[in-house]
What we know:
Blueprint: E1 3-6, H1 24-35, E2 44-47, H2 54-57, H3 63-72, H4 94-113, E3 119-122, H5 143-153, E4 159-163, H6 170-176, E5 182-189, E6 213-218, H7 224-242, E7 246-250, H8 268-285, E8 290-293, H9 304-316, H10 328-337, H11 366-378
Parallel strand pairs: 1-2, 1-3, 3-8, 4-5, 4-7, 5-6, 7-8
Helix pairs in contact: 1-9, 1-10, 4-5, 7-8, 7-11, 8-9
Domain Histone deacetylase: 19-314
InterPro entries: AcuC, HDACs, His_deacetylse_dom, His_deacetylse_dom_sf, Ureohydrolase_dom_sf
Pathway: Ketone degradation; acetoin degradation
Amino acid sequence: MSTLVVWDERLLKYDMGDHPLDPVRVELTMALARALGVLDRPGVVLERVEPASDEMLATVHDPDYIAVVKAASTGRRVGIMGLGTPDNPTFEGMHEASALIAGATRRAAEAVWRGEADRAVSISGGLHHAMPARASGFCVYNDPAVAIKRVLELGAERVAYVDIDVHHGDGVQEVFYDDPRVLTVSLHESPRSLFPGTGFADETGGPNAPGTAVNVALPPGTTDSTWLRAFHAVVPGVLRAFQPQLLFTQCGADTYRHDPLANLRLTVDGQRAAYLALRDLAEEVAGGKWVASGGGGYALVECVPRAWTHLLAVLTGEPIDPERPIPQSWRDLATARRPGHPLPETMTDGGTTTFSPWIPGDTPSAVDRAIMATRLAAFPHFGLDPHDPRD
């Protein structure tokens, strides 16, 4: 098996300053993966990044918007199209840094589709909120959408996008909402309690693509076991019915129990279990063709580096033993980069990843009601029975 890791230190220049989306989370991820030997495994290829051209970006984004991003990147004050806000402050070199991330994710998807690698990852990517004509939610260019557009250009007929970030994958859904070739599946905290306010179960696709948007809106407080219950009650069924030729996953780590911007309660153990489930589904339904990106995640030291190192390990071969100690060299680097932050000692939080499979008729919890709402809205489009746990 071969895995392409598209990586370049220049990707750390996507830096909005004093802002929650801090590139240190990516720096510490790559450092931890190196310290644990993940990037030295057989079959792992690290490739430098080429930025997406304006033409590539224009497959998703309006040319006028690209021009405004470029203008804002030179130091001009810009307060339109979602830029110049607390969420999306402008910064020098913003276009170049954003185009580099889009180029990295595009290259990852292209390599897997062409058979140059079995799997690929763009760990700095996953900027899933960017809209065709505006920035949103810390995201300037929507690199997952640019990558999926490239695979469609190359002849793909069915691509599945599964988003496990705590926030709804609204930008990717928007781009492909009326495209029957792309299935978007998002598990996220309920839009009643969290940005961006979309991702209800009844958002199921446009008139030309009914059923190709699937949304699981989970209540605040959802834990490892209940999140996994919801995942397995919805995602395998729709992926098996859709039969994608490639699986793209956005693996935001902000579902973490101590994430400062959201209210789900997963541990890194629950996140690791999600990556293993996605790996198995990629093998089952997409012939192993799996492209992964990062995404959100604001517990910069405690969670993100461990979660995404688990992701990199799953992508490149054997999972990391959760009990494995974290090297002191990484702990020293993390202390230097973020003094005062709590330092994990091992790759586990001691989370429980066993779960009770969903069965209709159980005494309904808030999570079970979310599961049922999604199944009722989405499953009939696939010829699946919302009430049959085997679907």
